[in-house]
Structure formats: C-alpha cells, structure tokens
Design goal:
By secondary structure, the chain is mainly α. It contains four helices and no strands. Helix content is 64%, strand content 0%.
C-alpha cells in the first residue's frame, strides 16, 4: 500500500516489539482485535499528542517522587524527540 493512500477501511500488517507479558495477553483474539484498533485511534486526527500528553501528566507525580522535576521530564522528552524526529 502506498503511503499516500488514506483508506481507513484497508488494513495492513505491522510488526512491533512488545514485552513477553504483553504478548501473552495478546494470545486472545478479542484482545488482539481491540489492541489493533488502538494505534489508529491515537494516531489519527491528532489524538496521539493528547494521549501522550495525558500519559506524561499521569506519570509526573511518580517521577517527582523519584526526584525528577517537570523541567527534567521536559528535557528528556525534547532529547528523545530530537533523536527520532527529522
């Protein structure tokens, strides 16, 4: 499928690396089907940024309990993005 095609009705197989515990959970066909819908949901129409932002905000209290500040977290995110995004 060409990248310029934008057909939400067509699906393609994508291989990703996950931990073994998660892989065992995905042995269930129902869980696999549900998990397969998730990337489309979070990546389409800007949902991904909102979901990521919410996840980071949820993790900040625990990070703070381990001595990380918001500035530390923001710097890590910026470094991560700089390494991966053009």
């Amino acid at each position: 499928m060409a990248p310029e095609e934008d057909d939400v009705e067509t699906t393609v197989d994508v291989t990703i690396q996950i931990d073994t515990k998660t892989a065992r959970a995905l042995e269930s066909p129902a869980r696999r089907e549900a998990a397969a819908r998730y990337p489309s949901f979070i990546l389409r129409d800007g949902h991904g940024a909102k979901v990521l932002s919410e996840a980071i905000n949820d993790a900040k209290p625990e990070a703070g309990a381990h001595g990380l500040t918001d500035d530390d977290i923001d710097a890590e995110i910026e470094e991560w993005m700089a390494e991966r995004l053009p």
